[in-house]
Amino acid sequence: MARLLELDAAGTLSTAHVRAGAQVSGVNARTVWRWLEAARAEGRMERRPRARLELSDQAWEVLAQAGGNVAALHRHMKEADGEVPSLASLHRAVRRDLDTGRVLPDRAVVRRDREEQQTRQALVDLALAGAREAGVVEVDARRPPRSKPTAPSAVPVGESGALAGVALPAGARLVRTSSVRTVAEAVGQAMAVQGAVCVFGDPGRGKTVAVRMALHEVPAGWKVTWVPVPVRPSVAGMRRAVFDALALPGRFPHTSALADAAIAGALGEARVLVVDEAQRLPVPCLEYLQSLWDRPDTRITLVLCGAGSERSLARLPHLASRIGAWQEVPRLAGAEAAAVMTGFHPLWRTVPAPDLTWIDQSCAHGIFRTWAALTAHLQNALLTTADAAVDRALLGRLFKRVVPPL
User: Fold this and answer.
1) One domain for residues 340 and 198
2) Contact indicator for 184, 214 with CB cutoff of 8 Å
3) What sign for the dihedral angle of Cα 215, 217, 220, 223?
């Protein structure tokens, strides 16, 4: 083009020159005349730059969900009421990016990532909603309709009025105390990030019940596994306990490598692993649980529960530093004990509030397990003793049955 322009400026440009230039460039002679006209008018000898269609990451995600169907992406862009390129332009843009190394995500992977993100957000919302609740919420023994299975205020229980693994006196109902709500919040936030939480407190405060109530109904796609701690556990015993708790098919493998491979495969799906009585675990067993949790192919939320479990974890700083929440279950406060017990069993609704405070100060001391034992003894006394009345004399005699001798 530069030589043709020089000939044109000198006035010696002829049709033969243009034809020769077209033959060399492999284009039509008319095209060369258009190039010369554009060079005279605009002073350029290269092609006019054309706007290039660039697909956003959101468009690629839609394309992945559609299994690479460009027509489906085109329909989606039309429904979005934005500027829509032609279908042919979309095909060219997709083909160009794929040729330059762009990888189309597998739609199953994209769907799973989106569902995981939605589940994590739901767990966070669930925990925050649980933290905003106030007062005491009773849990009826009759199973309510499951229109909102993940609602934090609805924890349906069985016909016996108890969750699996929780023994209650006849006629008693689970009560959502402030401790239960804080444990549910801590566990829910740990599930949102697949982290770890330690639930601790003195014996009898209701730690296990709080965790069971928090995990009774988890979002779809999650499973809950309770791992019992063996007596005087070893790493081999802990491995076998996890294998049995997961209910894996077949016999227990004869080598630790095969057992760990089978366990890791089962832990590849979203799962809450609850280890109750974690204070019994020596450092090697805690290291084994940490190794399962740290594996990149497992998706575990680890809940360590037990009286003194926080002291056991202190012996392994590497695991203690990974605990996202240290949740203590305190004693029932004096004012809260009266409200909780009237919701826990109908017997206590007939007892005046000052007497409930006296019971807590004299015997129960905010320990829920002591209150449950006292409820069972009181119920038995009323059934077996004629004309028995719930007074301080009867309660004083029952105190001696539930309080250990000094």
Assistant:
1) no
2) yes
3) positive
The 8-class DSSP code of residue 366 comes to T
Do 278 and 369 belong together in one domain?
no
**104 falls within a domain:** no
Distance CA 69, CA 88 (A): 13
* Predicted model pTM: 0.60
Tokens of 293: 């949790």
User: How confident is the model over 36-71, as pLDDT tens digits?
Assistant: 887 777 766 666 556 677 788 788 878 877 778 888
Question: CA 358 to CA 363: how far, in whole Å?
Answer: 8
φ, ψ (nearest 5 deg) of residue 123: -65, -40
For 270, phi then psi, to 5°, come to: -60, 120
Task: Tell the residue number behind the tokens 């309080």, with chain if given.
Answer: 403
**Containing structural domain, residue 299:** 115-328
Q: Are residues 172 and 83 in the same domain?
A: no
Sign of torsion, CA 63 66 69 75? negative
Q: How many domains is the chain partitioned into structurally?
A: 4
239 and 310 both lie in a single domain? yes
Compute the distance between CA of residue 218 and CA of residue 151 in angstroms, rounded to an integer: 10
